[in-house]
Amino acid sequence: MFEQIEGSRAVAKAVALCRPEVVCAYPISPQTHIVEALAEMVSSGVLSPCEFINVESEFAALSVAIGASATGARSYTATASQGLLYMAEAVFNAAGLGLPIVMTVANRALGAPINIWNDHSDAMALRDAGWIQLFAEDNQEAVDLHIQAFRLGEELSLPVMVCMDGFILTHAVERVDLPTQAQVDAYLPPYSPRQVLDPAEPVSIGAMVGPEAFMEVKYLAHAKQMEALRLIPQYAEEFRAIFGRPSGGLAHAYRTEEASTIVVAMGSVMGTIKDVIDEMREAGHAIGALGITLFRPFPTAAIVAALRGARRVVVLEKSLAVGLGGILATNVRMALAALPIDVYTVIAGLGGRAITKRSLHALFRRAEKNDLDSLTFLDLDERLVARQLAREKERRKSGPVAENLLRDVGVIAARNY
Amino acid sequence: MFQVRIHGRGGQGVVTAAEMLALAAFDEGRYAQAFPSFGSERTGAPVVAFCRIDDKPIRVREPIVTPDALIIQDATLLHQVDCFGGLKPEGHILINTGKSLAELGLEEYLAAHPRERVLTLNATEIALRRLGRPLPNVPLLAGFAAMTGLIRLEAVEKAIAERFAGKVAAGNLAAAREAYSRILSSLERAHV
Asked: N or C end of chain A: which has fewer CB within 10 A?
């Protein structure tokens, strides 16, 4: 049924339809309305049987999810930003133990400087922790990906991170088609764990493994992740059959036919990019886009297939590998290494910097003229940077960078719209 | 696409107003996207919320930079924040105030703006009387409906019923109806 609903609340409803048995969360910032709504549903009995466990930190939140999942309970939690970093050790453990926890990451920047706004730094920091990582383009896809995530994770015994842009999606109120319980039940079978802590049949989970088998355990985790590349398109197809709309999959190509330039991105910025692509196509530009839905495992073959006809690829990403450049872009470059395609890295939207159609129009036109550096920071305030660099050259004790820049900008609240 | 930007202060229901506008548009079978200016919300601090309405799915995620309409929930912001920034020529402006444009110091600035496109409504006074609380968002929304014809009063009433219950719903409903008819009267005067 169509509802006009906040992204977080829509995801909470979708998660509830998946019949989680344990939801645990640290309720304080950085947290979303998702767990708040789930807590309400558990306390009112709408979501039952389910235990909502309030914990004292994100580290505890995921640790409780690990314990719950090991007993065979379908387990869910959500976090963002510093919260994800605080649970980092447990993030690796959940994957290493092969426990199919589903976790929403409402993507936000990482400090310092403190910043609560959206970018992809949090999920990118833990990209190699062994979780499957899916990125939602809009709130409909966020809803749909959560349902697919439980199915996928439980089939493979791997945890799944569903990433949706913090604020931009979590706080947006828009039209979402929420499935029925019968549809979700038809799609998602009850959880049948490969390993379970059961007093009736005692086992231990989490043995110490030395050099004799550690590599093999890790290899199996890699092999299992790669299996997701085969399962995800199949599950997306089954999803379409039951729910009547395409959702999920490895990547979405948009108007890439005969495109000499293809823009690659992840998450909600794809919406803005598509509008710009439409306007540029209208004006005769041979440009298209590729939205990456699955970031881990990295769908190399699908990406090569989608991009191989292009002359140039512009990877626009909301994350920065300091000292290297892009993260998504580095992965795309690796995928395209054997092809004669120019790849440009564009870092955009860090810390909530708005990515506007106007800037994208200018950027893509420059790319078409091969007028982009291999690494570009979109809408970087170069004067602000130059001022700080001059200050540092002038005197040794130049002071804290963030404070200096804020003073230069002359921040007033609500200026940023 | 019709784009609305709402300026106000934390605690005035700015974000709620954008969400209710989206809800009202949805109830009328249209696509709508409401979102706040992201940041730490503090009571009294300037807040901006946005709403887009269209007949097809809305994909763009940039903040609204060239609005078709502005709702100013707090007139003290007019000289503090660039409320009019990017407003389309002849865009709608609805200001919550009991003062005239001259008293607000805007007469000269808006001299060329069509009279029926810049209206004032003492929404805080209406809300205090009808609701017992200085929450101008709902009467302004009803006033906006009357001013633009973009959504019907019935859709605003339905959004109120979906969002509030009991006394708060009843108070907001009364405030909305009063605001709606007041703006209709203002429009008649503007057209004379």
From this structure: N
